[in-house]
């Protein structure tokens, strides 16, 4: 028998991006909300993230000189995502565009701060795309302001723990080639030394700035959060979800929900059995960088109730590299793969993607090309001028070479033979790539043709900021794997975030958002924050619907 716990109007399972807008909206409507978190840390994978949220037609973009509209955003999404699917219906796309800005205004009214992130849409040169970008982010935040909850805010030391606001972060990768990059690096060091070390602050950016500020409001509003409380089942009565069963403080407890339960518990990136069942091969739960609790139990619980699912084979791919012992080293985004004098090839020696485009596109292309792992070919000038992962420009640590993480060669033939790449195919591809680099036009993949590509390029490199020949030894090679920041498939939901059965009818009382739901953005990534943005939007939408705020 389970111990009867309290009764709330709305129970939210998981503490990621969509949970705070949902809980705060419920309270504004005079209803009670509870956030239940499996781990001892709050914030979910959103706290690990870059802390950027993609919100179409937002006020801050238009105030910054953008010219967005519902119609323009819809044109962009329709062109990218393509045909309608169960997870991305016309009604859901419209809800994302319509309610996202409303959600931002609602949070701003409670004291939340957002800034325009100055991050171009990932396909800004497509119809409806924005060079200014539809992404928002939060200013730097002193985690100590959370008091006893500060140490419980989840963080990734490579991203969310750094005192750099999201709109400055890209310039760190250009510190060796631009004065602005040097200035951003200097400011980061001063924050670490002066604000953190001397004044005792814990200034953080990215996902900790976003989630830290949101949870500061949640704590101010005295919304309860149960941590260390894994949910084990959903309570169903007369076909309606009316609560949860959980393990709390060593006891099996039931918590009742008058208006419904929102599942925002992530996907199944850490569940190897589910990955093997649903995801493309090869796969590994060790390649993901999501929070440790992302193991799919809530997804399976809803599926056991007859919930429909969509695109379980897809993830938010983020190419990554690892030490030979499997230790994670770094993500690889256009910050390094899209810089001059770098190219990425498969085992046949051929390129298979625009290395300066979206990381999700990159990961999908790796599987399509049979390039798992793929190989980054890094020329001497790239190592001299550009960051590679966690390695600063100008020096390649000997221990990284000795370990076998990065391999160094005098010739491309030696590189190909050692890495299992077809030597003839690589030689032909390098010759072709070098011709593109000298002309400044990538005839195969249009690398460097968009504002987003150029955002990561070297502005001093001509004629194309993203292209440079591979011709001056030594040459370096790094194996790249299809890492991820979450699975992209999940429960099918409608425009009100209600979980649907296979026949399209809602499961009464059950809502989902974030990576527990199948992505409204389909199989593409529209811009920075295109997973956290919809999570927050549809968490807000779920609470509006459940509370009756829709009228």
Over the alpha carbons, how many angstroms does the gyration radius reach?
23 Å
Q: Helix content range of the residues, please?
A: 25-40%
Low-confidence stretches: none
Principal-axis shape equals globular
Look at the helices and sheets and give the structural class: alpha+beta
Give a count of the beta strands, DSSP E runs of length 2 or more: 23
In words, what does this structure look like?
With 551 residues, this protein is α+β, with helices and mostly antiparallel strands. The protein has helices spanning 19-28, 44-48, 59-63, 70-81, 90-109, 166-172, 179-198, 206-220, 272-278, 297-304, 359-368, 380-385, 398-402, 412-419, 423-439, 451-455, 532-547, and strands at 3-13, 33-36, 52-54, 115-116, 135-137, 141-142, 203-204, 225-226, 231-237, 240-248, 251-263, 309-310, 315-317, 320-322, 328-331, 342-345, 374-379, 406-409, 475-480, 484-487, 490-491, 498-500, 506-512. It has a domain at 320-480: Flavocytochrome C3, Chain A, domain 1 (Alpha-Beta Complex). The strands form seven sheets. Strands 1, 2, 8, 9, 10, 11, 22 and 23 form an eight-stranded mixed beta sheet that branches. The chain has a four-stranded antiparallel beta sheet with strand order 16-17-19-18. Strand 9 (231-237) and strand 10 form a beta hairpin. Helix 1 runs parallel beside helix 17 (532-547), helix 5 (90-109) packs across helix 17 and helix 14 (412-419) crosses helix 15. The protein is globular. The model has no long low-confidence stretch (mean pLDDT 95).
């Amino acid at each position: 028998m389970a111990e009867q716990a309290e009764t709330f109007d709305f129970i939210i399972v998981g503490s990621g991006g969509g949970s705070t807008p949902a809980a705060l909206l419920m309270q504004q409507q005079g209803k009670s909300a509870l956030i239940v978190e499996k781990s001892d840390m709050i914030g979910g994978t959103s706290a690990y993230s870059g802390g950027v949220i993609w919100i179409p037609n937002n006020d801050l973009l238009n105030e910054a000189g953008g010219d967005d509209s519902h119609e323009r955003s819809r044109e962009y999404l329709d062109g990218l995502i393509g045909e309608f699917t169960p997870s991305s219906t016309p009604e859901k796309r419209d809800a994302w565009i319509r309610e996202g800005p409303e959600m931002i205004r609602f949070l701003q009214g409670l004291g939340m701060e957002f800034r325009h992130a100055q991050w171009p849409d990932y396909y800004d040169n497509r119809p409806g795309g924005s060079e200014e970008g539809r992404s928002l982010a939060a200013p730097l935040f002193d985690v100590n302001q959370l008091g006893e909850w500060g140490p419980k805010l989840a963080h990734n030391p490579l991203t969310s723990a750094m005192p750099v606001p999201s709109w400055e972060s890209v310039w760190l990768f250009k510190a060796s080639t631009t004065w602005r990059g040097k200035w951003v690096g200097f400011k980061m060091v001063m924050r670490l030394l002066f604000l953190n070390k001397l004044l005792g602050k814990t200034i953080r950016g990215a996902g900790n700035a976003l989630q830290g500020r949101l949870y500061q409001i949640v704590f101010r509003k005295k919304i309860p959060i149960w941590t260390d409380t894994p949910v084990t089942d959903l309570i169903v009565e007369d076909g309606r979800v009316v609560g949860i069963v959980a393990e709390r403080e060593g006891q099996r407890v039931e918590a009742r929900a008058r208006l419904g339960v929102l599942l925002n518990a992530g996907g199944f990136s850490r569940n190897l059995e589910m990955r093997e069942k649903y995801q493309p091969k090869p796969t590994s739960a060790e390649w993901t960088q999501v929070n440790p609790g992302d193991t799919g139990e809530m997804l399976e619980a809803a599926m056991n109730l007859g919930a429909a699912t969509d695109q379980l084979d897809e993830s938010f791919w983020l190419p990554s590299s690892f030490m030979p012992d499997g230790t994670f080293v770094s993500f690889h985004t256009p910050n390094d793969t899209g810089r001059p004098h770098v190219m990425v090839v498969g085992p046949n020696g051929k390129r298979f993607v625009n290395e300066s485009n979206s990381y999700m596109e990159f990961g999908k292309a790796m599987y399509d090309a049979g390039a798992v792992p793929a190989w980054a070919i890094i020329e001497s000038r790239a190592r001299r001028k550009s960051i590679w992962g966690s390695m600063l420009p100008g020096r390649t640590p000997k221990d990284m070479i000795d370990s076998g993480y990065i391999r160094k060669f005098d010739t491309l033939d030696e590189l190909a033979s050692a890495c299992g790449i077809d030597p003839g195919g690589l030689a032909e591809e390098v010759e072709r790539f070098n011709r593109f680099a000298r002309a400044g036009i990538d005839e195969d993949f249009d690398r460097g043709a968009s504002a987003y590509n150029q955002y990561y390029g070297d502005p001093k490199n001509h004629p194309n900021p993203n292209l440079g020949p591979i011709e001056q030894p030594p040459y370096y090679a790094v194996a790249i794997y299809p890492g991820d920041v979450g699975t992209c498939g999940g429960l099918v939901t409608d425009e009100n975030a209600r979980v649907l059965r296979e026949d399209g009818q809602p499961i009464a009382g059950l809502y989902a958002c974030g990576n527990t739901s199948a992505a409204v953005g389909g199989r593409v990534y529209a811009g920075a924050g295109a997973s956290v943005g919809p999570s927050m939007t549809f968490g807000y939408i779920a609470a509006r619907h459940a509370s009756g705020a829709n009228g």
